[in-house]
């Protein structure tokens, strides 16, 4: 398949929002509490894109996945109940979602691997992520990719499991 991972354009916000809405419904159908409080929403997507943090996964130019990637900026991570593996620069990945009809192809994993490439290109060797305690699919992906559980963080009144992966420097 011809996959590309790139920064999103504001004109793509509606398509991205559709993918996120599908993911919100999936989380609800799975019995999860994650994303059931009006977040994320279209305004969040637009802000991601305006801050150049919104990224899309495309297949033959069709948007099939989304994630927000920020550098060294997640205030909630300063209040981790636990201990991070590193205290250096880091990349944060939020709001990862895959479009209906593209599930089960390992695309969430692919987005995480693309995120690692972006981090390494910027000489950043840590990726920090979090997810809801009941997002079993994402928890399994973190485990498969070598993310280490570091503790809990709080977002919008809910506790989330926090993970970090330390990347190897390219030779």
UniProtKB/TrEMBL annotation:
Q: Cross-referenced SUPFAM superfamilies, in alphabetical order?
A: Acyl-CoA N-acyltransferases (Nat)
Which GO molecular-function terms appear in the entry?
acyltransferase activity, transferring groups other than amino-acyl groups
The record, for Gene3D superfamilies, names: 3.40.630.30
- Which Pfam families does the record associate with it? Acetyltransf_1
N-acetyltransferase domain: residues covered: 3-171
- Protein name per UniProt: GNAT family N-acetyltransferase
- Please name the source species: Flavobacterium agrisoli
